[in-house]
Amino acid sequence: MASSARGEATPSAAETPTREVPGRDPAAAAWAGPRFVEFVALMALMMGLTAVTIDSFLPAFPAIQHDFAVQDPNRLQLLVYVYMLGFGTAQLLYGPISDGTGRRPALIAGVAVYLAGTVLAMLAPSFEMLLLARAIQGIGGAAGRVLAVAIVRDRYEGRDMARVMSFCMMVFLIVPILAPSLGGAVLFAGSWRLIFGLMLALALVTLAWFGWRLPETLHPAFRRPVSARAIGSGIAVTVRTRAALGYATALGLTTGCIMGYVGSAQAIFDTGLYHLGALFPVAFALIAGAMGLATLINARLVRRLGMRRLAHAGTLGLFLVACLQLALMLAFAGHPPLWLFIATLAACQFLMSFAMPNYNALAMEPLAAIAGTASSFIGFYTTLLAAFCGLLVGQSFDGSVTPLAIGYFCLSGLALAMVLWTERGQLFGSGGR
């Protein structure tokens, strides 16, 4: 088994089975599933479906408000919050269930729940029923997020795992930023209900592809009983593992930066500050492109340099650029030129994208024997932490970009502090990884 960060104890080889790692383990020849490129594409689709569902229908808010005669426009935000509530809490279930029954049954059940919620959303006769449908979607959608991470951990370890997670996280991070443009394009062709039709089609493709091509990845020796005691034990191990808790917290804090940005982006770029109008998606795409480029570079470098070095460099660089960004925003009294704001924000996102995929891999690395439960708890914890931090940043919008810059400065600083705590004050050590 791979060793954990900085002296954390992990199960010995005698306690846990050897994993089949493609390209390095002779036993990998027995693997009957998809090869690397197809495997990564399937995992990315599982995570990307979750991301599409979060905010692809945001452009439809006015139409939904009109169709259901919603008097208070702020109520429309509940369509996001109820989804995140279902998504966040349900993550606690899928991992432990999959640790007992296997990944395939848990994923198929989750997609079935998601499909039911999506159909209900397409046919919803009232706003209240649409809220219920979104909550059901969140409960089902959590399966893809949790089990994609668990399946990757089943198949890969160390730098190879970080490389796969880098590609998957690229999709998970970029899609929510581009999804409003996709939803707007679908809305242009017809009713807002067609956006849920798109979600339905993507879910059916995911289910068919997964069921046809991916065999069970959970080794029989890693199966655990599905019980409150076993779940509690797995969560306790995760929390006591310094690398898991520290890097998961850093992941939640940096994801909070993104959620704060997404929450206030429309007000900054369109209605409250720069008034870009139809060019709003262009600004989104420029920043998303920086994230995508960084994630691709990370995937190419991680096997050579190691996920710890790249994560630490990204974290330190993010904090330094966030300091510069805050100084510039204050110098312009919160109203900098558009090009300067986009440039500094894109630089932050670029550096962040070196840290986040590796955070996830480093958090999961010591927890092979409880990968499902660990993935569930880490997903639950990071989602709620990111949502809380993002809400604080987004709701602080005051007509300037200063609150966002302060948010990036504070959250990146806290993330750096967590990494230092995790590594006991030492950055850039290889630690075998």
How would you characterize this protein structure?
The structure is a single chain. Helix 5 crosses helix 13 (371-394) and helix 9 (242-271) packs antiparallel against helix 14. The protein has helices at residues 36-55, 61-67, 78-101, 103-123, 127-155, 158-189, 193-213, 228-240, 242-271, 280-305, 307-331, 338-364, 371-394, 402-422. The chain is an all-alpha fold. It is globular and about 60 Å long. It contains 14 helices and no strands.
Could you outline the blueprint of secondary structure elements for this entry?
Blueprint: H1 36-55, H2 61-67, H3 78-101, H4 103-123, H5 127-155, H6 158-189, H7 193-213, H8 228-240, H9 242-271, H10 280-305, H11 307-331, H12 338-364, H13 371-394, H14 402-422
Helix pairs in contact: 1-5, 1-6, 1-7, 3-4, 3-5, 3-13, 4-5, 4-7, 5-13, 6-7, 6-10, 6-12, 8-13, 9-12, 9-13, 9-14, 10-11, 10-12, 11-12, 11-14, 13-14
Subcellular location: Membrane
Protein name: Multidrug effflux MFS transporter
Main location: membrane
